[in-house]
Every structure is written in C-alpha cells, then in structure tokens.
Structure to design on (204 residues):
C-alpha cells in the first residue's frame, strides 16, 4: 500500500522552491542546487521504517476487518437458512414460531455487527491518517534540516526535482549542483548496522 510515499511527496512539493537566504532567483545557477526527494524516499532508512510501520498497521487492520466480515457473513448465512426453513410447508406452527424468534435475534445481532464494522472502519481510517501525517512531518523536518545544513553559506536556493513534467517546473538547468547524495549521506550516517548492510546489498 502506498501511504507514506504519497504523503511525503506532498511535503516535498511544499519544499520545491525553498528560499535559503536570497529573495529571488539568482542569475548564477552555481548558487542554486537541486535535490531528489524520490531517491531520498527509497534510500533514507527512516523513510523505509515509516513505510513499513504504515504497511504493518494497515495489514493488521485489514486482517481484523476480514475477520469482522466473516463473522457478519456467518450471521447473514444463518438468516438466509432460517428464512428458507420457515418456507417449508411441512413446518409446524410451534417450530415456525421458534424460527421467527431465532430470525429476529439474528437480525438484531447482524445490525449490531454492522454498526461495529462502520465504527471500526472510521476509527482505523482516522488512526492511519493521523499516523501517516505524523510520520510525514517527522521525515520532512529531518530532510529539510539536512538540506538547509548542506546549503548554508553555499547556495541561495534549493529546488526539488520534479517527479513528472509540470507547468512551470525546471526540467533541466546547466550549472546546478545535485545535493541528493550529500543529504542522504548525512541522513543515513546514524542508521543502525542492519540498515547500513541493507543499503550495501541494494547497490550490488
């Protein structure tokens, strides 16, 4: 599921023309740099951890939702079975009355289950949305801090590389430095040993 990457790119768009000291475009592009957020999303260990957290949480909710669906389906099957039994011409009045009571109870149970499922879906959606926003904010703050650190006293402006051609975006500009590798080097320098090994394996 794509949860973190989409939200993180939204944060990247907000940074797409971060002004770092100057009040406008500098004519000298040697003072302007670019950074690739898509690459950061793939290689920053905390971004990977955040993505896995969201996938695991969403997976747990899907599992519980499927269990609730199965429980409700079982009730619906019971209701259909009772209705079919009541249509039997040979059924006695006493037995029919018993089936009617069972049908009423099952119907009420089904309504309760449906309300619980709706409440669960709303709660799960809110929890996922809140967690995604929190993780996105934390990641964006980390990356923006390092970009500012790399650009300080060297660049007037840092532009995020566009992920697709958009009106008004810079597709190519000679003389701009790409600081993506520098930013990732700082972001990943404190990665746990296992995360560093994963990164080495990916390059092979």
């Amino acid at each position: 599921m794509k949860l973190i990457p989409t939200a993180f790119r939204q944060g990247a768009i907000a940074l797409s023309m971060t002004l770092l000291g100057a009040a406008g475009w500098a004519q000298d592009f040697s003072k302007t740099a670019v950074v690739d957020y898509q690459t950061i999303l793939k290689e920053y260990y905390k971004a990977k951890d955040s993505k896995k957290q969201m996938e695991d949480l969403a997976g747990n909710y899907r599992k519980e939702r499927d269990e609730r669906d199965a429980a409700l389906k079982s009730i619906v099957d019971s209701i259909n079975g009772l209705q079919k039994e009541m249509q039997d011409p040979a059924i006695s009045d006493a037995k029919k009355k018993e089936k009617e009571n069972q049908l009423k109870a099952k119907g009420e149970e089904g309504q309760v289950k449906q309300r619980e499922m709706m409440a669960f879906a709303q709660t799960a959606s809110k929890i996922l949305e809140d967690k995604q926003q929190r993780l996105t904010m934390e990641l964006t703050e980390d990356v923006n801090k390092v970009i500012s650190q790399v650009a300080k006293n060297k660049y007037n402006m840092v532009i995020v590389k566009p992920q697709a051609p958009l009106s008004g975006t810079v597709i190519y500009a000679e003389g701009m430095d790409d600081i993506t590798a520098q930013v990732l080097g700082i972001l990943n320098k404190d990665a746990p040993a296992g995360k560093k090994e994963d990164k080495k394996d990916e390059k092979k």
Summary: Confidence is low (pLDDT under 50) at residues 1-5, 10-26. The longest strand covers residues 32-35. The chain has six helices and four strands. The CA atoms of residues 11 and 141 lie 9 Å apart.
